[in-house]
Every structure is written in C-alpha cells, then in structure tokens.
Amino acid sequence: MNLIAQAGDMGEFIFTYPDLPDVSYAPLLAQTENYRGVQLYDVIAPKLAVAGQTYTVNQRLPVLLSWSPKGLARYFEFQLATNQNFANPILDIPYQTDAFYVWNGAASNAAYFYRVRTWNDAGASGWSVGSFSTIPPFITVTSPKGGELWRRGLKYFIQWQDNVPENVIIELYKAGSLLRTVSTNAPSNGAFQWLVPLDLNPGSDYAIKITSVTNASLSAISAAPFSIDAPVIDAKSLGRLPDGRFTFSFTAFGSTQASVWASTNLVLWQSLGSVTLTNGGASFMDGTASNYPARFYRLRLP
User: Fold this and answer.
1) CA atoms of 204 and 225, how far apart (whole Å)
2) Co-location of 130 and 178 in the same domain
3) pLDDT tens across 210-232, in order?
4) For the chain, does the N or the C end have fewer beta carbons within 10 angstroms?
C-alpha cells in the first residue's frame, strides 16, 4: 500500500490510528514444570498447557508456574490453593508484572490448583485455571524398553523420562551384568544418541540402565531385554514341503556364518550344520524333519 501526500512545504508529518478501547483476555497457561533457572524461552515461548490436564513435578524442587499474555496486559493477578474453589489460598498476589512465578513451598504427594487473570484499562479478564501434583523423583527408560532389534554400527536414540535436574549415567547391561558405560555425564534432556559399537557380541539379552549422577539409588533399567544383531527367523517364511522337509529364512546382520540347531522337545538339541549368510540373510532347509510331528529351531552365531 502506498501513501501519497501533496505538500508544498517541508515540515514534520505525524501518522496516527484510532485509539481502540482495551479488551482484557485471560492469559494462556504454560505446562507446569520444575524450576531450573528462568531462561528466555520460559517467558517468551512456554509450552502451552493442555486444558484440564494435571501436570506432575518433582516434590523436592521449586515449581515454575508460567503463562503468556493474550492481548494487552498491564499486570496479572495470581492465586494458588489446595482446593478448586480457592478458599483460603496459599498465595494471593493481586499485582504482578512478570508472567511467571517460582514457588518453593510444595508438600510431598500433594495436589495444587492455581489461577491467573489479566488486568488492563478494561478491568479484569476471566481466570485461567491450572493444576499440578507433586511426586518423588523418578527415571523411566522408554527406549529401548524391550523387544527392539538394534544393529551394530548404526545410531539409535536411548530415551527416558525423568523429573530430575542433574545429568545421568547411561550403562549397557548384558545378561543382567554391567558390560560397559555408554556415558558418564549425559544431559538430563530425555534422549542420547548412541552409536552401537561394532565389537559387541550379537545377543538378545541386552538392557540399558540410567542413573542419576548425584544419587546412585535413583535409576531405571529397560523393562525387558532388547537385541543387538541377534539372528531372527522370518515367521512368514516357515513352510513344509510336500516330502516333509521344512524350510525357513532368517537374518543375522553383522555375521557371515550361522549354525542351525534343532530339537523335538526343547531339551535335547542337535546341530544341523552351518549356513553362509549374504547381506545378513540366508535360507535353510531341514531334510531331517519329515519324521517328526513338531520341530524347534535355534540359531547360533560364531
């Protein structure tokens, strides 16, 4: 859009717009979280809360309650209580210009309610209401949580949930015993990219353990074992030929040879020989299966 003005003299020009009346809007609440030092993003771009959702925080740490103004805000009014009707509030702050509040008085295993409203020349807005509860410190491993198949030489994200501010130790376990330390001081941000070492032995009994660097008793381990380059039989490839022989395909990435073992009772096992793998895969035909009503197979890598 162009603005053209006809004027014969030099001077000062002033452009104006109509002065509209203020409208007070309820602020937008952010997700309740523990205070780890107010950063710029905490105030300018907080993670918006989901209406009606109760958030949990570490009961041993200060609580950060923040919000974003909607429209023009002269100041805010803030209340915190242990009941939804805000009778006898713990905190009642009638005037505050900051869009956040750090509270240090939370009890253990308790529920709290808070509300904020905006004030400007139009008066007070409606209340924005949120809630949170306090819980003990925790760590939970979310990946690998069990059943995954990871390959040597590739990168994967170890993931976890926690409510602790300190960094964590990440360890790799095999068959219930500590095998090696992945990281001694990983940031407590919920994810760590790990390059699976090439020198690990294939197996299906691996687990990841995550521990607080300041509290050795605060830890978590994968809920179930996961696999690293373990051989896997393709269930869809299982088939019996007309003459009774049995065939199947399997994968064992990172290996060039695999031995096949068979059993009819899961107690006594017989070696059926070795198979050469191409690009991590191979097929096998069991010529001794024709006389058995049931057959079980086990793969073993060198």
Assistant:
1) 7
2) no
3) 999 999 999 999 999 999 988 88
4) N
Question: Nearest-CA neighbor of 195 among 179, 212, 172, 221?
Answer: 172
Token pair, residue 69, equals: 């103004």
- 293 within a domain of the structure (yes/no): yes
Per residue, the 3-state secondary structure of 143-197, as one string, reads: ECCCCCEECCCCEEEEEEEECCCCCEEEEEEECCEEEEEEEEEECCCCEEEEECC
The torsion defined by the Cα of 20, 26, 27 and 33, in degrees rounded to 10, comes to: 180
Paired residues of 131 in beta bridges: 54, 113
What pLDDT was estimated at residue 1?
56
CA distance 234 to 296: 14
Judge contact between 219 and 140, C-beta under 8 A: no
Number of domains in the chain: 3
Residue span of the structural domain in which 148 resides: 139-228
Q: Give CA–CA dist 269/298, Å, rounded.
A: 9
| Phi then psi dihedrals of residue 42, to 5 deg | -60, -35
